[in-house]
Structure formats: structure tokens, C-alpha cells
Design a protein that fits this description.
single chain, alpha+beta, 8-stranded mixed β-sheet, rod-shaped
């Protein structure tokens, strides 16, 4: 009887030990999942915060002038002066400022953002820069985890400019895979508040459009982006 009772106790103890080991594994896996999510979220929100500090400002040049010519009669006698008013307004390259990412993005996104503004600019009948194709541009950044709270390993963030700069789509991924080959990712999207304010200049009555090398630089209101959503993938 004693041996039988000992055998039963050993079987119960073995079951409890196996359950404890299983629960410990699940707990450790849950902590790992939580840490990976926190690392991704920290890296992604860091980049989103920098993008929210960034602003695009459209720019154009404006000039108006006139030319006076002497008016003569059939005898060649001066009878007065005629005046022709000329007017010119053309788009210039815009500016991208604010945040630590502006310098990195300037050469990558600025052409597309100018194209966005150029569409509104052309609609007003002014001379815009040649319209660029609305292609999706991608830029890959690596957020180093050293010295940053919540970041235990580097996070790769891919930025994609969509719909002429009205939206910025981000995908954050960890460089390491789990034992099943799964890569942890988070996605986010920022939306812009529109396009730079409209050009308010109106050509004077009787003005003639013409091209000149330069004019007075005029800056429009700035466009900024705001975080719209973050989603786990």
C-alpha cells in the first residue's frame, strides 16, 4: 500500500511539474512578445514624432513690370506713349524643414512634394515646374536601440510617400526572426493637412504673361503631417 501511495504521489508531482514548466514557457513567450512589441512601438513612434515636426513650404516667384513705347502718327510724329504691362509668376523649389529627418528626406521626397503643390499651382493658371509622375517613393531608416528607452534591438522603418505627399506610410520591422521565421512588424500612417495655401496674386488688367529669369520669392503656408493610426501586423 505504501509503495502504491508513493507511486500515486510521484505521478501527481510529475503532472504538477510539467504544468509548471509549460506555464513558465508561456509566460516567458508572453514577455518576449511584449518586449518585441514595445521595441517596435518605441522605434516607430520615435520616427513618427520626427515626421510630425517636419513641414513642407511651397515657394514661387512673382514679378510684374511694364514697357513704354513711343506712338507715332503716319507722318512719323510722336503723338504719345503706349504702355504694356507684363506679369510673371512661376513655381520655385519648396523647402522641407523641422525635425531631425528633414535633411534625410529633402532629397528624397521634395520633388514629389513640389509636384503635389504644382498641381494646385497650375490650376490657378500660373507657370509650375514640370509635373512629376506620382510614383511611390520608399526610404529605409534604421533606428539604433543603443541608449534609447524601450529599444532593445535596432528597428528598421520603411517610409513610403503616397498620393502626392498627402500621406506617409511607415512599416517598422525587427531585424531578428523568431524560431518559426516570423518577423514582427508594426505599421503606421500620417496624414497631411492639405496643400500650401493658394497663390493670391491676380494679374493686373491688360497684363501680358511673359518669362523672366527671376522674381520676388514668395512663401506659402506650411503643410504638416499628423499621426493617424498605428496597427500591429
Amino acid at each position: 500500500m505504501a509503495l502504491l501511495f508513493l507511486l500515486v504521489c510521484m505521478m501527481v508531482a510529475s503532472s504538477l511539474l510539467m504544468a509548471a514548466v509549460s506555464n513558465a514557457g508561456k509566460l516567458q513567450g508572453g514577455r518576449t512578445e511584449q518586449q518585441k512589441y514595445l521595441t517596435l512601438s518605441s522605434g516607430l513612434r520615435l520616427v513618427c514624432g520626427e515626421l510630425e515636426e517636419m513641414a513642407y513650404t511651397g515657394e514661387y516667384q512673382y514679378a510684374e513690370w511694364f514697357v513704354e513705347n513711343e506712338e507715332k502718327n503716319e507722318k512719323g510724329e510722336a503723338v504719345g506713349m503706349t504702355r504694356t504691362d507684363y506679369y510673371w509668376c512661376g513655381q520655385a523649389e519648396g523647402t522641407l524643414t523641422g525635425g531631425n529627418l528633414a535633411d534625410a528626406l529633402r532629397g528624397f521626397f521634395l520633388e514629389e512634394l513640389d509636384g503635389m503643390y504644382g498641381e494646385a499651382f497650375t490650376a490657378r493658371g500660373f507657370q509650375a515646374q514640370p509635373s512629376q509622375p506620382s510614383a511611390e517613393h520608399e526610404l529605409v531608416l534604421t533606428v539604433d536601440g543603443s541608449g534609447l528607452p524601450g529599444l532593445e534591438e535596432p528597428v528598421t522603418v520603411t517610409l513610403r510617400l503616397e498620393n502626392r505627399g498627402k500621406r506617409i506610410h511607415l512599416t517598422a520591422a525587427l531585424g531578428s526572426m523568431d524560431e518559426k521565421g516570423y518577423v514582427y512588424t508594426l505599421e503606421a500612417e500620417l496624414a497631411s493637412a492639405g496643400v500650401p495655401q493658394e497663390v493670391k496674386y491676380t494679374p493686373p488688367a491688360g497684363a501680358v504673361f511673359a518669362s523672366v529669369p527671376s522674381g520676388t520669392p514668395v512663401f506659402t503656408g506650411a503643410v504638416k503631417w499628423e499621426l493617424e493610426w498605428i496597427e500591429k501586423k
